[in-house]
Amino acid sequence: MADKTKYNYEIKKIGAIVKSFSGGTPSKNDHSFWEGNVPWVSPKDFGDFYISDSEDHISEDAIGFTKKVPEYAVLVVVRSGILKHTLPIAVNTVSVTINQDVKALIPMANVDASYLAYFLKVFETKILGRCVKHSTTVQSVNSHEFFSLEVPIPPLDTQKKLSAYMDMARREYERSIKEAENILKNIPEYILKEMGLSFSRSKPQTFYAIPSSILEGRLDADFYSPKFLKLRKAIQDSRYKAVCIGDVCESIISGFAAGKQDQADDLPDNERVPQLRPFSITPYGQISFTTKKYVPISRLQEKDYCQKGEVLFNNTNSAEWVGKSTVFDIDTPCAASNHITRITLKEGINPYYIAAFFNMLRSIGYWKLLSTYFNNQAGVNIETLKAVRILLPEKPIQDEIAEEILKRKNTAEALRIEAEQDWEAAKAEFERELLGEMSV
């Protein structure tokens, strides 16, 4: 690490230490451009400091149009809807091209690419506040402001030491986050095992025949695919009681729609409440306020507020995420959008067990196959939801399963929090060691 007493490094603007270019998009109608094997990277391909395998590839003929990115260029997303919260950055290590929403920064010989990338990440919040131009559609980086940002340039060996320190901290952060995710991902398998169920995740058959004698008023082949017939039979034959969801509910209702004219994001807190939407439920069944939308209190009736103990079921989303479920158990008053179904269970039924069973069904694709499709979204309506059969063991077993799931979620959350804290500490150390009190 750098000597804490030395902050007299040369300061240069980003525009003076990099060459840069943006990518482009070949015509979708020119199929010859898309018949190659060179990855074409867009914002959707960015992870946290890495680029995932792009689904899009172009031919060598298109590279003159989009430009090939050299190794160790710093890639920055400069136009995306997520720039309000984060600045996606990655150091390129393979042969790729980029689209028009990504900018490649090619550092001069005396600038380490990883050092520059970590500098941008450490000062991400300030850079977003200064350089991102917000609009009603999509956020974009103001190039003039961005290239005017000042960067300290220590000796190259110091840059590399700082990069190595951050690499180590990031690897530990990613390891802990992965461990936490694995704990959460394994919860559906725990539910299946405890209920004595099994499910093959192998690729399903593309065609099959179903006897007319077992049809129940539905003709969609997905619902009667062999693997789900096997699951449904296992539920029916289980040592535990099989019930229809509708039979264990006191009430089952959807929230209400709120268009832009009905939202209250600009009102003071005492005049608005959060409206829970699909993004308010994590893939692992937790309530999230990472992104919030609000509705005015003046519009709400008592019945519009979520009640503690309700199971919240995400009824409309992309097909993969339909069925995300959680239990409303927080003190913050909230309403729910029409993409959320609110379920009040009968007395003596543990809502955490029911939400966990729903999430298990989502993880194996059951809600996806029960969905109807419209406007590029999938949905499960209330009548379909009511008819689904689940296992309902005795209350002590429900409680035991719910307690174990809570323990696992708490363990994962503790890992995540510790990882976030350590990563923030590493970024702060980077700043202290290199920049002192200097601001962007």
TrEMBL record:
It comes from Yanshouia hominis. Belongs to the type-I restriction system S methylase family. Keywords: DNA-binding, Endonuclease, Hydrolase, Nuclease, Restriction system. This is Restriction endonuclease subunit S. Residues 8-174, 240-403 form the Type I restriction modification DNA specificity domain. It holds the Pfam family Methylase_S. GO terms for molecular function: endonuclease activity. Signal peptide: none annotated.
